[in-house]
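Please, does this match?
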Amino acid sequence: MLTAERTRPGAAVETVIHYVDPAAPIGAHHDTDPSRSTLALNAHVVQVQDARPLADSLDLETNGFIFVRSPTAVTNFENREQREGAYYAEARELVRALTGAEEVLVFGDGVRNGAPDAPAGTRAPVFNAHIDYNEDTIRAIARDNLPAEDAQRLLAGRIVLINLWRPITPIESNPLAVCDAASVERGDLVHGPIGGRSLSGVDQAAGYNLAHNPGHRWWYVSDMQPDEVLVFKLCDTDRDRVQWTAHASFHDPNSRPGAAPRRSIELRTLAFFPDQA
């Protein structure tokens, strides 16, 4: 039985996370039309802990995710000029400040709206546990987007894929869960080709879908607000570092009847550390 109500602030939510079936043929997530996805998924009941009380103890290099307060000047995230102008600049500065990266490339913004009548160009929340892109894909993104004079130097160093997830309106339903990257093992990863036009902008993009492991530790941030951002790490060319922060939307059993559909924006960034191998 799923938990009917949260008994205290910071308590866990019992819910369902959809994992890929590792015994099934490899399927593809179709980024632009989820109805055409061919993934074989299994539903697993899990505990999703509230990370809000632990904000000060989380670390990107230990857990693979943090959340921060980060107000934005953007007033309309459906406006592409505002996203690619002010918001991309804010994202670059935030990732630099959090990681010390020399350069940050911002790409692949996705506005998500869970309403049945969502505006054209927005996408629905994704409910299967996944990791956006693998190392081959992030290197292809870098090659396609870096200035020619910088590409060789930056591609020779460490590259880290970091996503920024922000509510556009306060989250009342379908929050985002992230899996503590320290609890994800390489054997949990199933190759995940992406169908349709990927937000990466490169051909034959792929990441990973997550197979179930009872050791996974799932987290979310309760009552997220538009001035808060979940920051999580999905791929690191330094393979000895914590990475692979799987994530998925989930149905929160504590959401009130008539809760507002989830509206959010996710940005992908590549952080470059040319002095690190």
